[in-house]
Write a structure and sequence with these properties.
Structural class: mainly alpha
InterPro entries: MetI-like, MetI-like_sf
Main location: membrane
Largest sheet: 2 strands, antiparallel
Organism: Scrofimicrobium appendicitidis
Helix content: over 70%
Membrane topology: Multi-pass membrane protein
Strand order of the largest sheet: 1-2
Number of strands: 2
Distance between the termini: 49 Å
Keywords: Cell membrane, Membrane, Transmembrane, Transmembrane helix, Transport
Length: 291
């Protein structure tokens, strides 16, 4: 039995469409793979130069890899600095701020997305304004406020500042995710007798994992990698986070560049590890935020 002419035409059309999509995918890979490799050059350079021994500063492969790799710089950094103390300080700053931003931001996002509150648009506009404030523009005011309330040279002061700076982004991203959940879900839970807190904690919060992952990575990067705010608000060496350690290797002639890059690698590792574990949620969270 022969195939009807219409079916044969449809099959040829689908075959041509599949071939066209395959060609587009190949062209896309041909463009993105070189861009990805180019983007990785600075990362390879940082890791490579962290392995450059101070007694043999010769490099190869266009100056981004050491001629004689060695882990001596990492040993030097750990001998000259209380790295684990600085690492603990960074953790005590970043982890509480991430927790505060995620939970407070999610509750505020739920209120703005589903609850009836007065002047909701005004609150949302204030949050958007909070996103445009640069750190360099508010650092003096933050310094004065921390001094006034007695939180200068105190890790709690940094936790509160980073939490305040991260909340606008968290509320906007998580609110967008909550708005994507059908409103019928909320109404059905209300009919079943669930309180707003139960609906938030049992229904909305678990469904917002991709958006929450975006907030976690963003807040961790901001609070972990920041240099300016700890520089002006922490003077006690025992309270300094890991990002201030590279200052020990700065100088006019930079006699220990390998040690400097070794510290930069140590600073970057925790954020990279968290990103690896949360990357499967990251794309969905960003896609939901764009919608």
């Amino acid at each position: 039995m022969s195939m009807p002419r219409l079916d044969r035409r449809e099959a040829r059309r689908l075959a041509r469409s599949g071939s066209h999509l395959e060609r587009k995918k190949n062209w896309l890979h041909a463009i993105l793979v070189p861009l990805a490799l180019l983007w990785m050059v600075p990362l390879i350079m940082v890791v490579g130069l962290s392995l450059m021994p101070s007694n043999n500063p010769k490099t190869t492969f266009f100056g981004i890899l050491p001629e004689a790799p060695s882990i001596s710089n990492y040993g030097l950094v750990f001998r000259e600095n209380p790295i684990f103390l600085h690492l603990l300080n960074s953790t005590l700053i970043a982890l509480p701020s991430v927790i505060i931003v995620v939970f407070v931001g999610a509750m505020a996002a739920f209120a703005l997305a589903r609850l009836r509150i007065p002047v909701k648009a005004l609150f949302f506009g204030i949050l958007i304004l909070g996103l445009v404030l640069p750190m360099s523009g508010i650092v003096v005011a933050v310094f004065k406020i921390l001094q006034t309330i007695g939180l200068y040279d105190n890790l709690l002061g940094l936790v509160l500042v980073y939490s305040a700076l991260g909340l606008p982004f968290a509320v906007i991203i998580i609110r967008t995710s909550f708005l994507a959940i059908p409103e019928d879900t909320y109404e059905a839970a209300v009919v079943d007798g669930a309180s707003p807190w139960t609906i938030f904690w049992r229904v909305y919060f678990p469904l917002a994992k991709p958006a929450i992952s975006v907030v976690v990575i963003w807040q961790l990067m901001m609070s972990w990698n920041d240099f300016l705010l700890p520089l002006v608000s922490i003077s006690n060496n025992n309270l300094k986070p890991l990002t201030l350690v590279p200052m020990a290797y700065r100088g006019l002639f930079l006699s220990q560049p390998g040690a400097l890059f070794a510290v930069l690698v140590l600073i970057s590792l925790p954020v990279i590890i968290v990103f690896i574990f949360l990357q499967k949620y990251l794309v969905n969270g960003l896609a939901g935020a764009i919608k």
